[in-house]
From TrEMBL, chains A, B:
InterPro entries: ATPase_NBD, HTH_MarR-typ, ROK, WH-like_DNA-bd_sf, WH_DNA-bd_sf. Belongs to the ROK (NagC/XylR) family. It holds the Pfam family MarR_2. One of its GO terms (molecular function) is DNA-binding transcription factor activity. Residues 18-66 form the HTH marR-type domain. It comes from Actinomadura darangshiensis. This is ROK family transcriptional regulator. It comes from the Bacteria.
Length: 390, 390
DNA sequence: CTAGTTTATAAACGAGCTTAACAAACCCTC
DNA sequence: GAGGGTTTGTTAAGCTCGTTTATAAACTAG
């Protein structure tokens, strides 16, 4: 730790080269004129030239043909861009039913995306692991890459993950999953940094990536299960490892056990519980699912509206203390329930305004199915760049 | 923003000088041999010599008389130490009833500490401001310093403070306080960085300073009012400005308004409310205050024990959602109620264990009355060092 | 008083950035 | 198509800084 040895002129070179690389990255994926880099970095032309030469040599950047540069009435500029293929990263989303893999290049361009379902049930852990290996293989093939070329890897999984070892400590939704050392398994195949992270946390990272600027964000994944991730100034907050587990908040009143490892709030306002509430409230139309309830509420059905309001109130009361302590700029709701639309949003906003000092903006996530995968790729990329600049 | 211009060899000098200063600071307040600095920083002897010369010249360090160095069988070493007086910082704690000021030197040695009471009531804001000016004057006198020598200033005040402007947005406990621009007032007298911060946040910073290492800490101030500060990896979490306002968490059940701006949780388990609960429960001994209730509970009185358990349960239920989201390593309770001792602690621990996945260590703060002042001085010092290394 | 140890000083060297002058390549106008 | 204007690239001199290496200083132990 604290290795800051030998601060001589070579360190300057490293610093400046890193600054140039960062500047190119910020303008990715398009090519950048060297003169532009001079302006942006504040370095002088010879310095930038030297750094670019080094970076091209090392494979980080690629020169563009001067013939193709747009003319602006002077000597044609040299242009460079990130050579994305130089360090692709692999992301994985290991869900209880689905496993997906994606590969992004340095500039966050998607090189491959593969998805595969895996049946649940007994021995699910084993099947999941096999599915993981398969999607990895297919993704590598699709991108035309070997495992050794991968520069970073991040995996999203349900459950609570130990930050240090990467071991999964608690994963009620996948039987046997805690006894699989996923991190170790992957490290056997890849010789790059491997990060295992809770899926809701990665989703939060993906959501934060969509939002401009920094600040505090609470990103809720609301489906059958209920989880959240906290992102502060672009960085994931892990707490002592289990941050964001809002599914285990206990709402007022008695919540019957289900024995499937779900938390009290999940059992009260998870997608399944919402359908149950509607059924008990006598919503016409047989056995509705959560989506049907929200649709009915949107259409004006007063029974459904009461159910939605009840759900929103419970949610707001459950998270209000966390909102008061964390004071996030926004709460973004994703997951299956997020497709509910504005009915739910308005109700949550209304209740939260009543329960907090500084009600955050409550929004629905605009991200589609691949949220966790996107977050995993983002984490892998972030880690990669972080290592570069240290 | 992003000014990183002109990265030439002079930057190296700045970097290395800063590294030397940091190394000296880490060994404060004792003097350090130059040879030791060479070893610690990894720089070479001539470089360290140059940096030390510069720092002595600029007044940051002072040389020690070689005659006084302990002999170790060789040429006597040059030794330097922080010249604390070079940049003292001023801390203020503006409470509703008491105002205190403190001055620390660079090495966090206390140079002055002054306290003064200010009566509440109408026109309290004006009297407070006068008291602030007075304690500042006396502290400066006590330390033998002029206002221009102060290198940093931080103020703790009740209420919610806007991070950008330093304006106080909400302060129910001091009438008229929001219309006083404290930050502006101080900036008129001092030409150093001025930070205004919520008092509970500063207390949290002080508590965090007492704890080794990093991690997530929820520091609760529990007295008549109830507030908290969140410290993550040594840095204060401000959220959008009002983080930690646990007094406004709404516990289950109806909480009558009192119209004095206190939040629902404060009205339920604040010091005054605890006494009220005991009175209503029929605790013998007339009109007890909170301390008496805790004392009776410790002594074995079952009525008092029921009250304490009720209070602890309410507290635990209120903060459990925040604990699940934040997953702090510890909750430290300070303020008047903290003097309750292990009765309260045990009860809170018990209830929290039942309501969270990963129950944090609940502890009592070891800090005395000056918690907020200590935090203010710490914030001012942190800011000062932060500015130096940028 | 000499040997050994620890520390400080000074000069030579090398790496890196900056300045400044100059060259290249292109557009436009006459 | 020749020359001026513009943007960009190239090169060499000069400066700052850290490192290396050799040498001197100051002290203790025996």
């Amino acid at each position: 730790m604290g290795e800051e040895r030998a601060v001589g002129t070579p360190v300057l070179r490293r610093l400046n080269t890193a600054a140039v690389l960062r500047a190119v990255r910020e303008r990715a994926p398009g090519p950048v004129r060297l003169a532009e880099l001079v302006e942006v970095t504040g370095l002088t032309r010879p310095t930038v030239g030297q750094a670019v030469d080094d970076l091209v040599e090392a494979g980080w950047l690629q020169q563009h043909d001067p013939a193709t540069t747009p003319r602006r009435g002077g000597r044609p500029a040299l242009r460079v861009s990130l050579r994305g293929r130089a360090a692709p990263v692999l992301g994985l989303d290991v869900g209880p039913h689905t496993v997906s893999a994606g590969i992004d290049d340095l500039a966050a361009r998607r090189l491959a995306a593969v998805r595969r379902s895996a049946e649940a049930g007994p021995a699910a852990a084993g099947r999941l692991l096999a599915a993981v290996d398969e999607v990895i293989e297919r993704a590598l093939q699709e991108a035309g890459l070997g495992a050794d070329e991968i520069a970073g890897l991040a995996v999203g999984t349900p459950g609570i993950v130990d930050a240090g070892s990467g071991r999964i400590l608690l994963a009620p939704s996948v039987p046997g999953w805690t006894s699989v050392d996923l991190s170790d398994h992957l490290r056997g195949r890849f010789h790059c940094p491997v990060q295992v992270e809770n899926d809701a946390n990665l989703a939060a990272l993906a959501v934060a990536g969509e939002r401009p600027g920094h600040g505090t964000l609470l990103a809720v994944q609301w489906g059958e299960r209920l989880g959240a991730g906290v992102v502060i100034d672009g960085r994931l907050h892990r707490g002592s490892g289990a941050a964001g587990e809002i599914g285990f908040i206990r709402p007022p009143g008695h919540v019957p056990e289900t024995g499937d490892g779900r938390g009290p709030l999940e059992r009260t306002i998870g997608a399944e519980a919402i359908a149950g509430k509607a059924r008990r409230a006598g919503l016409p139309g047989g056995a509705p699912d959560a989506a049907a309830v929200f649709a009915a509420a949107s259409a004006g059905d007063s029974t459904a509206q009461r159910v939605v309001d009840d759900v929103a109130a419970t949610f707001a009361q459950a998270v209000a203390p966390a909102v008061l302590v964390l004071d996030p700029d926004a709460i973004v709701i994703g997951g299956g329930v997020a497709r509910a639309g504005s009915v739910l949003l308005a109700a949550v906003n209304r209740h939260l305004a009543d329960l907090t000092l500084n009600p955050p903006a409550v929004e629905l996530s605009g991200l589609a199915e691949d949220t966790v995968l996107t977050g995993a790729l983002r984490l892998a990329l972030d880690e990669f760049w972080r290592r570069l600049s240290v």
